[in-house]
Amino acid sequence: MEKLFQQIEEHASLYQHWLLSMCNQPSISAQNIGMQEMKELVIQLLEDLGADVEEVVTAGYPIIYGQIDNGSKRTLTFYNHYDVQPPDPLAEWMSDPFKARVENGQIFARGVADNKGNIAARIAAVHAYQKVHGDLPVNVKFIIEGEEEVGSPNLKKFALENPEKLKTDAMIWEGGMRNVHDKRPHISFGVKGICFVELRVRGAAFDLHSSEGAVVENPAWRLVWALSTLKNKHEKILIDGFYDHILELTEKEKAFFQTMDYDEEHTKTHYQIDNFLTGVTGLELKERLTAAPTCTICGLEAGDTGQGAKTVLPSRAKVKIDFRIVPGQTPKMVIDLLRKHLDQHGFRDIEIEQLAGLLPFNSDSENPFVDTVINSMKEVYEEPPIIMRNLAGSSPMEKLLANTEIPAAQIGVANTGSNFHGPNENIYVDDFIKGIKATANVMRHFGDV
């Protein structure tokens, strides 16, 4: 292990050069800017490792598939994406988002945290291992898509049509992070799912003078009444059957909450709030954040909300709601229960449109890969890891891993102040090097399992 880590440190400038080259190449999938050039750059880096590389054609941008098969008993796959978010607002960047800037031990560039830093770290880990040991301890696969930032519309089809390419014993997914304040690394083994809907209520054929509100139904009020039936002031979701199929946490998963570092006072100060919902704190807060479903009003629209007074009776009202769902729940289940709930409460006229949906995904906490990742991280970082059964947010893990028993872990090179999708996106150089070591160490130990 010492020789491997020494190799990584001695070649840190080379690996940083690879990363800066990727960051200097725009690859904005939403605008088709630089995608071809970025794809070719990634392919070249993989081919330089000796990987067999294939462009898998999709209805959108190609998925890059790379494989290094040395006949090992186990295969480890890396999932990443080579596209990034647009850099707007440009005025808030301290430097050109596509000219990577290294300053005071940090790298600033669009995509450096999400997700090019992790691509470079995984390629570097393979390179370092090859230089020290020759053969890798496991077979390695790379699945690097170009559409994660636009919802991964072709990832599920790739999985269905390419079962051999997806065949693996475990997966390192996209990326993870490290605390800025105490440098503790994060490890997570899944994500919540999401069911995002829009509810619409229709009234008169067009907006009316508000005096008509004495005799003509107001869609805005009707929508408010419907929303009031979904959740009570104690934060319980009132849709019948909503909680019925949620899988119980195992004792090992409950133990993960003990490792979580959630600075409640700092968070409240940062958000400028007095308390968390229902006064929740401690372990219950951590469990609720990562393991409980939610029902969140994301936006409401009805009538006139412009400056000044406009006495109007709106003809339309709509709301966007997201449900974060957990293992045992599905987007379809939520839609069906929501439709039944609204009908039973006298709101058959309210339309429901599903705008997005992702299944939750969680690795089996008893799978040996889980402990392999945890122990590998402990050998690299001096600080104890924060271990999460799953993240509070969602990602397309299920599109690739649904109906498989493939365990997946999220570790990476970002930090809690990386400004994902925002101006001055950044990582620390030290976190990048540590991320290379962690990836190499996971490969080493997984080959021993």
Automatic annotation (TrEMBL):
It comes from Oceanobacillus picturae. GO terms for biological process: lysine biosynthetic process via diaminopimelate; proteolysis. PANTHER family: BETA-ALA-HIS DIPEPTIDASE (PTHR43270), DI- AND TRIPEPTIDASE DUG2-RELATED (PTHR43270:SF8). NCBIfam families: PRK06446.1 (NF005034). One of its GO terms (molecular function) is peptidase activity. GO terms for cellular component: cytosol. InterPro entries: Cyt/Met_Dipeptidase, Peptidase_M20, Peptidase_M20_dimer. The keyword Hydrolase applies. This is Succinyl-diaminopimelate desuccinylase.
